[in-house]
Amino acid sequence: MKKLQETHVPYNTGWAGELKQGQVIRITATTTVDFVCMRLNNLKERFDQARTKVYNMKIFLTTGDKLMGRNNQHMMTIIENTNREGTHDLQKGMCSGYRFQLAKQEGKLRAYYNRDYKDEEIPDHGCYENLSRALAPYGIIPEDVPNPFNINQHMKIDGATGRMDHTTVRPKAGSYVDLRAEMDLLVAFSACPDMPVGGKPVDLLIYEP
After folding, report:
1. Are 203 and 32 in contact (CB under 8 A)?
2. Which H helix or E strand runs over 4?
């Protein structure tokens, strides 16, 4: 393994960087990580949740599964997943400051996030803002940030009704996901505030096998 970059990403912040074809990004976290990617030489070609679900014929991804773009291009492959406690989600979108405030106004914080919260515990921003800020230097406006691959977001989904519920299931310390770039990419992620359990920092490693 040839290490190219190691970075510690603080709680409730974002990161963006470039990957060459064949390089691998390792994301080590015990919190939810909202992850997106775009083709480097055409940033309009972006990761797509729906294409990814249909191609893999599943909503929870693991080792060997592919991240697909809007034009059905194969963008990344999960080559290692050491999260044994839960799953990675393809249903949920991004949290945001507005989302938290709306849930508070509607009295739904407990229903959404499994417990009551004091005002000072409610973040003023979330993954939408983190990803928007991280991608802004590349000319990507917030409205063009794709819905993410939610690493470590273990959702309870009722197959009959389609109801989704947050859970507090998260991976053990040291657990990671390795994603290999199948083309030159811009990648970005947010260290989610992860309301159900409380967010944590995220460590990333970029390497060549």
Report:
1. no
2. strand 2-9
- Three-state DSSP class for residue 139: coil
Contact between 205 and 25 under an 8 Å Cβ cutoff? The reply is yes
Distances (CA, A) of 203 to 5, 28, 33, 56, 87: 11, 5, 11, 27, 19
Tokens of 171: 């991976």
Q: Which two tokens stand for residue 119?
A: 């005002």
pLDDT band at 202 (very low <50, low <70, confident <90, very high): very high
pTM passes above 0.90: yes
Place of tokens 């507090």: 168
* Domain spans of the chain, in order of start: 2-208
Please report, for residues 70, 106, 186, the alpha-carbon distance to residue 22 in angstroms, rounded to integers and kept in the order given.
21, 46, 13
Integer Cα distance of 2 and 173 in angstroms: 23
> Token pair for residue 182?
């199948």
Taking a C-beta distance cutoff of 8 angstroms, is the pair 109, 117 a contact? yes
What residue type is 110 in one-letter code? R
Chain centroid, CA 25 distance in Å: 13
Cβ-contact 89, 60 below 8 angstroms: yes
pLDDT at 160: 92
On the question of pLDDT at 120 being above 80, the answer is no
